[in-house]
Amino acid sequence: MAEKLIIVMANTDPRNGEELGAPIFQATVAAAMEYEVDVICTATAGRLMKKGVAESLVVKPGSPKSVYDFIKDAHEAGAKFYCCSPNLDLFDMTEDDLIPECEGIVGGAYLIEEVMEGDCKVMTY
Length: 125
Known about the structure:
It contains 4 helices and 5 strands; from the N terminus they run βαβαβαβαβ. It is an alpha/beta fold. α1 packs parallel to α2. The model has no long low-confidence stretch (mean pLDDT 94).
Protein backbone atom coordinates (compact mmCIF):
# COMPACT_ATOMS: atom_id res chain seq x y z
CA MET A 1 0.00 0.00 0.00
CA ALA A 2 1.26 3.46 -0.86
CA GLU A 3 2.32 5.55 2.09
CA LYS A 4 2.09 8.83 0.19
CA LEU A 5 -0.81 10.67 -1.35
CA ILE A 6 -0.33 13.44 -3.87
CA ILE A 7 -3.30 15.69 -4.43
CA VAL A 8 -3.01 17.79 -7.57
CA MET A 9 -5.25 20.82 -7.61
CA ALA A 10 -5.18 22.00 -11.22
CA ASN A 11 -8.75 22.49 -12.37
CA THR A 12 -9.98 23.59 -8.95
CA ASP A 13 -10.90 27.22 -9.55
CA PRO A 14 -10.58 29.55 -6.55
CA ARG A 15 -13.38 31.67 -8.03
CA ASN A 16 -15.75 28.80 -7.21
CA GLY A 17 -15.34 28.19 -3.48
CA GLU A 18 -17.37 25.01 -3.36
CA GLU A 19 -14.73 23.29 -5.50
CA LEU A 20 -12.07 23.91 -2.85
CA GLY A 21 -13.50 21.98 0.09
CA ALA A 22 -13.08 18.36 -0.99
CA PRO A 23 -9.39 18.30 -1.93
CA ILE A 24 -8.28 20.27 1.12
CA PHE A 25 -10.52 18.26 3.45
CA GLN A 26 -9.22 14.99 2.00
CA ALA A 27 -5.66 16.20 2.49
CA THR A 28 -6.48 16.86 6.15
CA VAL A 29 -8.03 13.42 6.64
CA ALA A 30 -5.15 11.59 4.91
CA ALA A 31 -2.57 13.49 6.95
CA ALA A 32 -4.49 12.74 10.15
CA MET A 33 -4.37 9.06 9.13
CA GLU A 34 -0.59 9.49 9.12
CA TYR A 35 -0.08 9.31 5.37
CA GLU A 36 2.47 11.60 3.82
CA VAL A 37 0.43 14.15 1.85
CA ASP A 38 1.61 16.61 -0.79
CA VAL A 39 -0.90 19.07 -2.23
CA ILE A 40 0.38 20.54 -5.47
CA CYS A 41 -1.44 23.70 -6.53
CA THR A 42 -1.00 24.37 -10.21
CA ALA A 43 -2.81 26.22 -12.99
CA THR A 44 -5.67 28.33 -11.61
CA ALA A 45 -5.48 26.65 -8.19
CA GLY A 46 -1.96 28.04 -7.83
CA ARG A 47 -3.54 31.35 -6.84
CA LEU A 48 -4.41 29.74 -3.48
CA MET A 49 -0.76 29.84 -2.49
CA LYS A 50 -0.63 33.64 -2.84
CA LYS A 51 -1.02 35.60 0.38
CA GLY A 52 -4.47 37.16 0.68
CA VAL A 53 -6.26 34.96 -1.84
CA ALA A 54 -7.42 31.99 0.27
CA GLU A 55 -8.18 34.32 3.20
CA SER A 56 -10.85 36.02 1.12
CA LEU A 57 -12.54 32.80 -0.04
CA VAL A 58 -15.11 30.53 1.59
CA VAL A 59 -16.27 27.05 0.60
CA LYS A 60 -19.87 27.93 1.38
CA PRO A 61 -21.40 31.40 1.58
CA GLY A 62 -21.88 32.40 5.19
CA SER A 63 -19.25 30.00 6.49
CA PRO A 64 -17.22 31.36 9.40
CA LYS A 65 -14.10 29.59 8.08
CA SER A 66 -12.11 30.82 5.13
CA VAL A 67 -10.40 28.53 2.64
CA TYR A 68 -7.17 29.65 4.29
CA ASP A 69 -8.47 28.27 7.61
CA PHE A 70 -8.96 24.90 5.91
CA ILE A 71 -5.45 25.07 4.43
CA LYS A 72 -4.05 25.80 7.90
CA ASP A 73 -6.00 22.82 9.33
CA ALA A 74 -4.57 20.52 6.65
CA HIS A 75 -1.08 21.88 7.21
CA GLU A 76 -1.35 21.40 10.98
CA ALA A 77 -2.42 17.79 10.34
CA GLY A 78 0.76 17.30 8.33
CA ALA A 79 -0.18 18.00 4.71
CA LYS A 80 2.45 19.84 2.70
CA PHE A 81 1.38 22.42 0.13
CA TYR A 82 3.43 23.31 -2.92
CA CYS A 83 3.14 25.92 -5.64
CA CYS A 84 3.95 24.85 -9.18
CA SER A 85 6.77 26.95 -10.63
CA PRO A 86 4.93 28.33 -13.69
CA ASN A 87 2.41 29.93 -11.33
CA LEU A 88 4.96 32.48 -10.20
CA ASP A 89 5.06 34.01 -13.67
CA LEU A 90 1.39 33.35 -14.44
CA PHE A 91 0.14 35.20 -11.36
CA ASP A 92 3.00 37.72 -10.97
CA MET A 93 4.22 36.16 -7.73
CA THR A 94 7.56 35.73 -6.04
CA GLU A 95 8.45 33.32 -3.25
CA ASP A 96 7.82 36.18 -0.81
CA ASP A 97 4.18 36.27 -1.96
CA LEU A 98 3.52 32.67 -0.88
CA ILE A 99 1.55 31.81 2.25
CA PRO A 100 3.62 30.40 5.14
CA GLU A 101 1.95 26.99 4.74
CA CYS A 102 3.44 26.64 1.25
CA GLU A 103 6.50 24.40 1.61
CA GLY A 104 8.01 25.66 -1.62
CA ILE A 105 7.96 25.59 -5.36
CA VAL A 106 7.99 22.45 -7.50
CA GLY A 107 8.13 21.90 -11.22
CA GLY A 108 6.59 19.33 -13.49
CA ALA A 109 9.57 17.01 -13.09
CA TYR A 110 8.86 16.67 -9.35
CA LEU A 111 5.35 15.34 -9.96
CA ILE A 112 6.39 13.05 -12.79
CA GLU A 113 9.26 11.60 -10.75
CA GLU A 114 7.07 11.06 -7.67
CA VAL A 115 4.42 9.28 -9.73
CA MET A 116 6.76 7.18 -11.86
CA GLU A 117 9.38 6.27 -9.26
CA GLY A 118 7.71 6.77 -5.91
CA ASP A 119 5.27 4.67 -3.95
CA CYS A 120 2.32 7.01 -4.04
CA LYS A 121 -1.26 7.43 -5.09
CA VAL A 122 -2.44 10.52 -6.94
CA MET A 123 -5.78 12.31 -6.74
CA THR A 124 -6.43 15.10 -9.22
CA TYR A 125 -8.96 17.92 -8.91
